[in-house]
Amino acid sequence: MPSVLITGASRGFGRELFEIYAQRRWTIFPLVRNPVVASQLQASTEATCHPIVADVAAPRAEHEISRILESYCNSLDVLINNAGNVKKLRGLGQTYPEDLEDLFRVHCSGVLRCTKTALPYLKKSEKPAVVNISSRFGSIARVMSGKGSTIYSYPIAKCAQNMLTACLDQELRKQGIRVLAVHPGRLKTEVGAPDADTDPRDAATALADWIDQVDGETLCGFHDIMSGRLIDW
Ligand SMILES: NC(=O)c1ccc[n+]([C@@H]2O[C@H](COP(=O)([O-])OP(=O)(O)OC[C@H]3O[C@@H](n4cnc5c(N)ncnc54)[C@H](OP(=O)(O)O)[C@@H]3O)[C@@H](O)[C@H]2O)c1
């Protein structure tokens, strides 16, 4: 069976991805912060499931990811870097370097950490892919066109994550590993924007179908999954 590691699988979009891959009977490595949730996920599915309890923002995550992959994984086909959080503080007056650093640690350092740790297993897959869940808010082109929000930290963290995606693609594509940035849609989750209009289950299904189609020809772009278009970086 193919295998997938999904970060932030406890709830929201990551949880829906977990459900979709469980239905498809993939081997799943859900990364969650809460050990109780980890046990619940494992008990909830007949798919092979090896939870990883870790905070992607903390260096110790490397140890926990390695420990589980070493024990249960020969090769990893897909890594979905989904874990994320939002601070909806608006304007320069409400924006503090500490908030920015907090979000950077999750959306950027966390993605780097998980990708580096999973890399030896991705290299063993016949069709490996790293899918970084970005956001339309991370697009500089969108802000410059006047459609940006007045929030600083989240767009900056996602924009940095997009650059990380491009850097990873440059190095890893030569090794046959696809690295892609994805905007999953305006999801009706806890942190969804006021204009959220997309059921996260529908978006998770669309993303899993799209990942199935990823091949050597797929460009490292900023992919809007629900519309099928590329977003300007
Ligand atoms: N909602 C949208 O419309 C939308 C649009 C574009 C992009 N996105 C992106 O999609 C992803 C999922 O968003 P969502 O709407 O599903 O958010 P959500 O409902 O708030 O879920 C966030 C998930 O990330 C986990 N998480 C947060 N920080 C973490 C950390 N340091 N280590 C490990 N796990 C962590 C949370 O775990 P806990 O349960 O432990 O808190 C939770 O499972 C995020 O990257 C978000 O930026 C969302």
Provide a brief overview of the structure.
The protein is of the alpha/beta class. The chain is built from seven helices and eight strands, in the order E-H-E-H-E-H-E-H-E-H-H-E-H-E-E.
List keywords for this structure.
single chain; 8 strands; binds NADP nicotinamide-adenine-dinucleotide phosphate; alpha/beta; Rossmann fold; 233 residues; globular; 7 helices; eight-stranded mixed β-sheet
Walk me through this protein's architecture.
There is one protein chain. The chain is an alpha/beta fold and 233 residues long. It has helices spanning 12-23, 35-44, 60-72, 97-122, 140-147, 153-172, 200-213; strands at residues 3-7, 27-32, 52-53, 78-81, 129-133, 178-183, 222-224, 229-230. It has a single domain (3-230), classed as NAD(P)-binding Rossmann-like Domain (Rossmann fold), CATH 3.40.50. An 8-stranded mixed β-sheet has the order 3-2-1-4-5-6-7-8, with helices on both faces. Helix 4 (97-122) links the parallel strand 4 and strand 5. Helix 4 runs parallel beside helix 6 (153-172). The longest helix is centred in the middle third of the chain and has 26 residues, at 97-122. The protein starts with a strand and ends with a strand. The protein binds NADP nicotinamide-adenine-dinucleotide phosphate.
